[in-house]
Specification:
Layout lengths: L3 E6 L11 H13 L2 E5 L17 H18 L5 E3 L2 H16 L1 H11 L12 E3 H9 L1 H6 L9 E4 L21 H8 L3 E2 L14 H4 L1 H17 L4 E4 L2 H9 L1 H8 L7 E3 H8 L17 H7 L1
Parallel strand pairs: 1-2, 1-3, 3-4, 5-6, 5-7, 7-8
Helix pairs in contact: 1-12, 2-3, 2-4, 3-4
Length: 298
Amino acid sequence: MAKKQYAFYPGCSSQKGASASNFVTSIGLMCDKLDIQLNEIPDWNCCGASIGYGEGGELPRLVLNARNLALAEQHLPGQDMVSGCPACWLATREAAERLNKFDDLMAETNEALKEAGLNLKGSVKPRHIVEVLIEDVGFNAMKQAVVKPLKDMKIAGYVGCQTNRPFGIAGESFENPLYLDKMIETVGAEAVTGYDQKVTCCGGALAFSEPEKSQKQIRDIVESAYDHGAEMIVTPCQLCQANVEIYQSEINKKQGTKFAMPVVYYSQLMSVAYGGGIKEAGLDGHIIQPKKLQDIAR
């Protein structure tokens, strides 16, 4: 069967040695098993993410993303631009929608892109890889690829903010999106029902500027998972994964808790269920070891 082709924007946090390099490792195996081919955009640059909203102004932020879109148009024509990172997806999608809507912004952006020998036509559709899985692959096909069902695992699906607001996944509720629960179920695990922190913000960059506020959010996220009987949290977001995993030890020191809740990516669940080993699923890059998932992957 011919693989489905997509222009792939990895994002900075997924690079070798970066905080979410294990995410891209698991994405690779998952996509291979689902006949998805991700073609990395040549010479891509940082999307700017939240820092792009600082002092630089609107045009530089739009141009950063427009350059990636223009490179995808030039090198991978006809392919949707897929991001795994919710922040990258948001930045790219916002830029594409604004540029396609406002001719003056598109003209100014293309004037800047001339310096790089590029011109954006606006033909590329930015998508999150979860959209590809749901819309182009489908839950049935995701389930059919399973060779190691993740039986007897109870998992809290933590969606977070950025894959849910402002755009979200088509057809899903903003208050209670169900797609992550369904993905958990496709691999044979049990999705926690009634998990009331599913779309709570993890605190994002507040982890540095206002750590007490961020850590309160993280405590609520983890505590609710324990309260609902979960043994693992699964998320589609690199920042959520990092914050919710890393700061549990800090919360334990400050507040006397004993949190040790593994936090993994949905792609790691799927990679293990599709027959991947520990390294192939990127399970060797965690601070809190997802031991039960690792045991299945061995």
